[in-house]
Amino acid sequence: MAKKKKNTQENNDISSEEASRQFGISLKDLETLMQTRGLDGIRELNDIHGGLNGLGQKLKTNLIHGKIQIKIKTLLLFIS
Q: Angle CA(32)–CA(13)–CA(70) in degrees, nearest 5?
């Protein structure tokens, strides 16, 4: 039998400013990075965010296992 997913929508009570402080990257910066392509995207990722490892640390995510090291409700608010 499949496990039932928990509803995380009801506890999203953190502001985008608080998420930005907690993660060290703003939603706008993350969106810009995601939209930047080619060498410009690689440069921005490396120079501004410390590469994939630096971005993973900011987002508090294990890049190998994909495990989030914070409360899921905070991350969902940050990326939504």
A: 70
Contacts of 14-18 with CB under 8 Å at 24 or more apart are 14/73, 14/74, 14/77, 16/77, 16/78
In the chain, where are the structural domains located?
A: 15-79
Overall pTM surpassing 0.70 (yes/no): no
Find all residues with CB under 8 Å of 70, minimum gap 6, and list them. 22, 60
Q: What is the pLDDT of residues 34-56, one digit of tens each?
A: 999 899 999 999 999 999 999 99
Chain-centroid distance, C-alpha 48? 15
